[in-house]
Specification:
Pfam families: DDE_Tnp_4, HTH_Tnp_4. It comes from Streptomyces rhizosphaericus. This protein is of the alpha/beta class and 254 residues long. The chain has 10 helices and 7 strands. It has 2 domains: 104 residues; 137 residues, no CATH class. Strands 1, 2, 3, 4, 5, 6 and 7 form a 7-stranded mixed beta sheet that branches. Strand 3 and strand 4 form a beta hairpin. Helix 1 crosses helix 10. The radius of gyration is 20 Å and the shape is elongated. It starts with 11 loop residues before the first helix and ends with a helix.
């Protein structure tokens, strides 16, 4: 197998953050020696998450076995996912802002037509539903655990307790029409089937769209992590990947 040098377009502070977490974790476990030191394991994990390269390709470049590569990434992802902010923490942060932004996004997965629970009629593809919470500047605050793509956004937000938690914290939330009827604190655009909006309603909807456009910055965050563009791992591992990416994003932002 040919080996070639490559780059990972993440800040060096992200590498230092993950390296420090892995180093602390190894001290807690009492690990004496491993094939890769914490810095190299962190670089390996970032290359996999950011570039989406298969384990076999990266393992050859780092001089380790494929099974070892899988264990290294799984360990780092589990560690990062545990550090991701909880919904309560995200709600406390949102309560200090003027408002919050809520949106649902679909993570495409490798599935066949028979897997109906994962098929999103809205996006016309198989995937996993993730609820994204952002602040008024479009900074990502929270990414929910995943649900099958067939689950509607408002149902997903309710099942995760997002709407109830934000309402309890007194946070006004801006969302799209997919969240109609969610709660009085959730602002959605005017919607009418088979009817035309008045001039005032159209103006409100335009203003609403401008505010909501900021959440697209948070949603676009996951697109920069190429592994999440087309997920091929078992669905029970997707939540961990999402939470790990969230933790890395917040670490690099800070």
């Amino acid at each position: 197998m040919l080996v070639y040098p490559s780059g990972v377009d993440v800040p060096s502070s992200t590498l230092r953050f993950l390296s420090a977490q892995l180093r602390r974790h190894r001290r807690e476990l009492g690990t004496r020696w491993r094939r890769l030191n914490p810095g190299r394991q962190a670089l390996f994990t970032l290359a996999h998450l950011r570039n989406g390269h298969p384990y076999a390709q990266l393992a050859a470049g780092f001089g380790i076995g494929t099974t070892t590569a899988y264990r290294y990434v799984a360990e780092a992802v589990e560690l990062l996912a545990a550090l991701a902010p909880t919904l309560a923490e995200a709600a406390r942060t949102a309560s200090t802002k003027a408002f919050a932004l809520l949106d649902g996004t679909l993570l495409p997965i490798d599935r066949i037509a028979a897997d109906r629970p994962f098929y999103s009629g809205k996006h016309k593809k198989h995937g996993m539903n993730v609820q994204v919470l952002a602040d008024p500047s479009g900074r990502l605050l929270r990414a929910s655990p995943v649900l099958p793509g067939a689950v509607h956004d408002v149902r997903a937000a309710r099942e995760h307790g997002i709407i109830a938690t934000l309402a309890e914290a007194g946070v006004t939330c801006w969302a799209d029409k997919g969240y109609r009827g969610a709660a009085i604190t959730v602002r959605v655009p005017y919607w009418a089937r088979g009817e035309t909006h008045s001039a005032g309603q159209k103006a409100v909807n335009r203003s609403h769209a401008k505010i909501r456009s900021l959440v697209e910055q948070a949603v676009a965050t996951r697109k920069s992590w190429r592994l999440l563009r087309k997920i091929r791992c078992p669905t029970n591992r997707v939540t961990g990947l999402v939470q790990a990416v969230l933790c890395l994003h917040l670490a690099s932002s800070d």
